[in-house]
Automatic annotation (TrEMBL):
It comes from Arabidopsis thaliana (Mouse-ear cress). The gene is KMS1. The chain crosses the membrane at residues 47-69, 89-114. Keywords: Membrane, Transmembrane, Transmembrane helix. This is SNARE associated Golgi protein family. The keyword Transmembrane helix applies.
Amino acid sequence: MLRSQATLREKHEKEVENLTLTTQPLNTLKLFVEATIQYIKRSISYLLAHGGWFILITTLLVVSGGLLVTVDGPHGKHVEEVLEYVRYGLWWIALGVASSIGLGSGLHTFVLYLGPHIALFTLKATLCGRVDLKSAPYDTIQLKRVPSWLDKSCSEFGPPLMISAAGSRVPLTSILPQVQLEAILWGIGTALGELPPYFISRAASISGSTVDGMEELDGSSTEDSGFMATHLNRVKRWLLTHSQHLNFFTVLVLASVPNPLFDLAGIMCGQFGIPFWEFFLATLIGKAIIKTHIQTIFIICVCNNQLLDWMENELIWILSHVPGLASMLPGLTAKLHAMKEKYIDAPSPVPSHIK
């Protein structure tokens, strides 16, 4: 009897392993649809049995929202404003999810969208000497739409308000609040994108199995497979052997820095039973607050010349202690400033009769 049960269990495990889109596409899609329908039925039954107030409030909100959108009136401009904020929030959160979802294979939306947006706004603010460029907080890069301030000339915003002799025209503390909200929304999306590995690993742990990433890590050989792969495997094994130290603080540290192995940390947290809210809050604070501010401040400092000014001051201080170079520093500094102003200052206006 026990042998037959073991045989059936082994046969079932082999069938599950072979059940993939590449080997059995039709059967896999059929089972996926059946599981989805079953999950929806269970969710509806649960809501009908326990969520009467939730269904009532949701229905009222949907009906009220539909009436506000379809019926014309003086409230139309306020509804449109709310919809703009909703689109703005969903856009940046979706970009964050796309960046972190897929076990490292997601779209690098920071490099494609958020980073260029911060850089363009910083350069524009530095060029115009003011930060009141946006017509509204949602006046940012979005799908099929560019911000209104990007193609405007500085004369349309008015005279510069922030100019100093040191070369740092607009301080960091003035630029950061103008791009802070979209950076935080993007960070919230990256935290949400880290949840699927956690949930998959936790479900596998509850069912008594392990996810593919853990199995590959356990079964990986020590053969030489390249410099980067060898060191990554060492780091993975170190994380696995120190899994007993996984807690709120360690997850917060791992989430607060650019870390390509954070997916593995999420898998391990799910596999070893770290509570959901402990994992999610640490990930949310690390990615949406700490990490995004580090990245945002770095880009602002690079594009606002503050990092260049610091490097220039340090270089001048070092060269001033070199015999024979102290007398050359004033001329060298003047040339550096001239070169920098050449690329920062606004170009001279072109006459209207010239294309």
